[in-house]
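so the lab meeting is tmrw and i was supposed to have these ready like two days ago... anyway. pasting both below. for each one the top line is the aa sequence and the line under it is the structure tokens. i havent really looked at them closely yet so no promises
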Amino acid sequence: MLDVAIVLFMILFAAIAIQSKLLRHAIIALTIFSLFAAVLFLVYAAPELAIAEVVMGSGLVTLLYLTALKRYRFYRICIVSELPEDINDRFISEIKSTYAMHEIRMFCRRRERELQLVFSNDPLNDVLRDPRYHLVMKTGLNTITIYGVVDDYMVVEMELVFQMRRFGAGMGVNFVYYSPEDLP
């Protein structure tokens, strides 16, 4: 009975690893899968295999994956509202469900970048000066203004994607290029 439960958990974590959209979650699921495999080896009285699975499967392979993941790039976007008091759970879910955010998510996925969204109440100029953000989005009533650094090719490429999909200025999305050194 215990072995059946372990196999079911292994299937569950294998499915989680396969279906995961974030590589970190997939690595964690594979590590847990490997630990369940080691427990299964112990259940079947194979302690040498269990030790090998823990050392290699859970330890070494996870370390290699995490080292490779360190080279994985993030794309951090800060979202600022015209009315900072509006940033709440409803606002966040509305922004995440917009077509513009869907396009940005697809854009990042095609370029193997993990999208990180940060919602801020800070003034726009302070956020634009912050070097942690690759992109800054300011949301208005019916418009989204995307601020990108002048020499960032990803912003130019993103603007081209929006224009090709006919989603640009006519649909309330505007791109503004800036240089952090020129900000007041």
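ok protien two:
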Amino acid sequence: MQLFDTIASMGHEQLVICNDSSAGYRGIIAVHSTTLGPALGGTRFLQYASDEEAIVDALRLARGMTYKNAVAGLNLGGGKSVIIGNNKTADREMIFRAHGRFVESLGGRYITAEDVGTSTADMDFVHMETKNVSGLAGRSGDPSPVTAHGVFRAIQASARERWGSDDLSTRTVSVQGAGHVGYYLLKELHEAGAKLVVTDIDVERVKQVVAEFGARSVAPEEIYGVQADVFAPCALGGIINDATIPQLACEIVAGGANNVLLEERHGVVLEERGILYAPDYVANAGGVINVYSELAGWSSARAFRKADEIYDTILKVFAIAKHDNVPTYVAADRLAEQRIKAVGSMVRTWPQWPNK
């Protein structure tokens, strides 16, 4: 692996390789950009197949956080960290305190939070060593309602773009995943009068939303072919692929899952099929908005108001896509790059960083 060439090609500022043998800790912190502010991104705890795989994952995810934070209109750059190991281990304090010390060593350039394989309890251990951590127990709370609200607004904006109205009372929405985000999204869609079709590998979750929201349930493998106006993936990533796209019987794809497109070319295939795609990191930005609300000291109501702005952001993405004649996933990147360039070009004054 040509490490410096890889970092340069992806535009990263910094890559930190961390080790504390006494704590059983091996970590990687990737800082992609601090143009908009300190780099924010969660910590993943996974047993990677190789060190190279872990590094590439950290770099890829850090870059994605730069774009997500920029499009969300936050004063944050993008970063990510990964811890290599068995995330089922019960001995977690020393691992995460060691991680906290390395986060602290960056002097505020990077702020971490929970992610895959980590929890608020883990972040409490990190907090013992650094203040540069968010997602703590008893602070901003469960991000799922804010995330789901942003996805709901993305669906409304997509409906306006496709049909000229964001009224969902005559629309059918199929939702893949009835977990935390999926549940709250189903709740808002139900309140908006939408007809609902749902699936989840957890049978009890499906039973709950069928009972509460009058949804129709289908088997997990059947959700792609459901006749619906909108398909909302809220579970796994990579589900828009060569196998599933031919099955889709919808006009819009907009959901809360990350990395919905297995490959970027699948965004092009959606467009060729006439399916409008609301880019996932724009639609699900409510999660990072919720984290930022903790850092900035916002109220829950203000976090929801900020998530409301996803409606207008999605419409901007569609406008760029039409003007530049590019797929919507490319348009989302361009919108993020516009903001990064605009802020980065501003005259530097003293003090260097604005207030929150």
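from a quick look at the 2nd one: The mean pLDDT is 94. The chain is about 45% helix and 15% strand. will dig more after coffe
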